[in-house]
Specification:
The chain contains 15 helices and twelve strands. The protein is an alpha/beta fold and 388 residues long.
Length: 388
């Protein structure tokens, strides 16, 4: 039975059953594959025939994961990587060469910032940062050698948002490749390709897994673009392991129900903290006070599970709050079933200068709250006692 409903697709898309007629897909822990004869081996390596030749290229588990993600995000094809950062590196590596230029949102994950400033810069790729809250400035940054527009929306950890339809039109006007890091939203809340993006990237380590167990990433787009990605990835080797692919594919079966609870809890936390006298600022896409609230409502189904706050007292105030938390975990990860508190200025974004952090709204008192699936009363009680 075919369905257009997200939950049914995520649960019922499955690799072909073996002769054992298993109900749940098995794990294919194999590095290589057997060919029927020498001709089949030649045809597979010549891309004249579809099939598995080596698990660095493809594996039944990674293929199932990719197929599900393509259906959920509205993409034609994809490639699964060992981590989210491997997905970003592979995308940059597949499409950029010396002399090319990127226009990127200034609000990006710390390791993405490192790729732009310290890795690809050594290879002759230049970039300019543009502000998510100033879309009117983006076109001025595009140069004759600009090859790619890269954006996180919502951003990490500032929760800034930009209109993807606007960026899609801008990319089309200037014949640019629009790449969107869709990690915070997931395909359940936002589908960048339908809004004009060419490639959507996920750190599957986050909400796709959703339980803090495995690393993974994925790159999604049309067949022509993903062929470029695969051509680069087959030789650079960032492939996802079969075991992690199996975990991630199974995790997609519960993504919708998990995200519903994450979003429900996060909105209640944001509304509570917005009224708290010890909180200077609360950023959450579905709060009417968010600067891009109307854009968020237009392109996202719900507001996501991340709430970013600024507490009084700077870094000491942030440390005091975090050290007093009893149920929240202090961790650099996010998107877990368990609620997590992170101090970006001294962890995930510590390699940025203080000026760079201030520009993207990361103050010394900024804390990223990844709101989990615990009962909302317990989440609020822990926050309340930590602020007391």
């Amino acid at each position: 039975m075919k369905s257009e409903n997200f939950e049914t697709i995520a649960i019922r898309t499955q690799t072909e059953r073996s002769l054992h007629k298993e109900h749940s897909a098995p794990i294919y822990l194999t590095s290589s594959y057997k060919f029927d004869d020498a001709e089949e081996m030649r045809a597979l390596f010549a891309n004249e025939k579809e099939g598995n030749v080596y698990s660095r290229y493809s594996n039944p588990n990674t293929s199932e994961f990719i197929e599900k993600m393509c259906l959920l995000e509205g993409a034609e094809d994809g490639f699964a990587t060992a981590t989210g950062m491997a997905a970003i590196f592979t995308t940059f590596g597949a499409f950029l060469k010396a002399g090319d230029h990127i226009v990127s949102s200034r609000s990006v994950f710390g390791s993405t910032h490192q790729l732009l400033t310290n890795v690809f810069s050594k290879w002759g790729v230049t970039f300019d940062y543009a502000d998510l809250d100033k879309p009117q400035d983006w076109e001025a940054f595009i140069k004759p050698n600009t090859k790619m527009i890269f954006v996180e929306t919502p951003s990490n950890p500032g929760i800034d948002i930009i209109d993807l339809e606007f960026l899609g039109q801008l990319a089309k006007k200037h014949n640019q490749l629009l790449v969107v890091d869709n990690c915070f939203a997931t395909p359940y809340l936002q589908q960048p390709i339908a809004l004009g993006a060419h490639i959507s990237i996920h750190s599957a380590t986050k909400y796709i897994d959703g339980q803090g167990r495995v690393l993974g990433g994925i790159i999604l787009g049309n067949k022509e673009l993903i062929a470029e990605v695969i051509g680069f990835a087959r030789h650079s080797g960032p492939a996802l392991s079969p075991f992690n692919a199996w975990i991630l594919s199974k995790s997609l079966e519960t993504l919708a129900v998990r995200m519903d609870r994450h979003c429900e809890n996060a909105l209640k936390v944001a509304e509570y903290l917005e009224k708290h006298p010890k909180i200077k600022l609360v950023k959450y896409p579905f709060l009417p006070s968010h600067p891009q609230y109307e854009i968020a409502k237009k392109q996202m189904k719900q507001g996501g599970g991340i709430v970013t706050i600024v507490v009084d007292g700077g870094v000491e105030g942030a440390r005091n709050f975090m050290d007093k938390l009893k149920m929240f975990s202090i961790s650099a990860n996010l998107a877990d079933t368990r609620s997590i508190a992170t101090h970006p200025a001294t962890s995930t974004h510590s390699k940025l200068t203080e000026e760079e952090r201030n520009i993207v709204g990361i103050e010394q008192g900024s804390i990223r709250l990844s709101i989990g699936l615990e009962h909302i009363n317990d989440i609020l009680a822990d926050i309340e006692q930590a602020l007391a």
